[in-house]
Amino acid sequence: MISLLTVVLSIVSDGFQLRGNIMRVLEEDIVRWTEEYSTNKHIDPLFMLAIAAQESGFKANAISKSGAMGLFQFMPITVKDISERFGYPFDPYSPEQATKAAKIYLTWLCNKILTTEVSTLMFYLRDSNITYPHDLVLVAYNWGYGNLSKYIESRIIIEGNKMIPRSGEVHVELPDETKNYICKVNSYYKLYVFINQ
């Protein structure tokens, strides 16, 4: 099952480097660590795999040009935030610790973003790049929660439980990098769901 996935990923991914059995073990480990580490919200292990595939190509020692580190490409400020806010100091280059940290961070993002009003929010955003509620979580993961908030505030006035679309104003647009990120993570996620049915 996973071997078919590695073949498909090698065809659809730019620069995706397969590493034989190491990749297979790491995929299985990410699923196991995600399931073992308990948070107050369920985070689909296949969603975690999709993020790791896009962020680092499953390379635990990956470093981006902007300084993001490890399997889930944490910026130094995010490492500090997770350590201080959630009491989980971790090594971003340790696959197990990074997976647990990513689950903690994604849980926080889901709790903040995936509220009962998310359907209404998506309706008023009217952005073709935002198809699924979890796309908003991906925007925050890639571009930052603060930037997601500015993006929403530029399009919608939120007063209590009411949402009013802003009209005639300049909207904050998603960067191309974030649009591509959403698309690629969702492609990986769909592949993982299909192969693991």
CA-based gyration radius: 17 Å
The largest beta-sheet arranges its strands as: 1-2
CATH topology: Lysozyme
Low-pLDDT residue intervals, each spanning 5 or more residues? 1-24
Helix content: 55-70%
Task: Give the arrangement of secondary structure elements.
Elements: H1 2-12, H2 21-36, H3 45-56, H4 76-85, H5 95-113, H6 118-125, H7 133-143, H8 145-153, E1 156-159, E2 162-165, H9 176-195
Helix pairs in contact: 1-9, 2-3, 2-5, 3-9, 5-7, 7-8, 7-9
Summarize the structure in words.
With 197 residues, this protein is mainly alpha-helical. It has one domain: Lysozyme. Helices cover 59% and strands 4% of the residues. The chain has nine helices and two strands. A two-stranded antiparallel sheet has the order 1-2. Strand 1 and strand 2 form a beta hairpin. Helix 3 packs across helix 9. The longest helix has 20 residues. The N and C termini lie close together (10 Å).
Search tags:
single chain, 197 residues, mainly alpha, Lysozyme, two-stranded antiparallel ribbon, 9 helices, 2 strands, 59% helix, 4% strand
Gist of the model:
With 197 residues, the chain is mainly alpha-helical. It has 9 helices and 2 strands. The protein is 59% helix and 4% strand.
